[in-house]
Specification:
By secondary structure, the chain is mainly alpha-helical. Helix 3 crosses helix 5. The model has no long low-confidence stretch (mean pLDDT 76).
Amino acid sequence: MIVQLLQFNGIGIKKATMAINIWQRRYAETKFTTSRQTIDISPDIHVKRAMCKLGLINMSGSQKLNYNKIDKDVVIYKARAINPKFPALLDFAFWKIGKDKICKNNGCESKKEKQCPFESFCPTAKKYLQKQNKPRL
């Protein structure tokens, strides 16, 4: 299905995987659905930001603070490793984290008054809290 969508002008990997992901979740009980294992995460800038900030993808050298340089295949393979039965299930959660800038480009939401929801396991939050000597959860 994704290959067919990619044949349309203006449809890239992000839109194709997002459309199939939505379609799969909506019509999961019908006999026409594709295998959930074949539906990948949409590797956009927000997903990349969230995965990096949560320590799921390591950034090095020229990639530092430039999420566009992260190979989309790295994002896809990491999502497959985390949830091999349905990698795209992670798509909306990571997109929301990155889009709403819960995990910011230049730091962490923990520096604000409110508490970061990922503080207990996020390496970015842990580093920031150590610098600030804030008590951890």
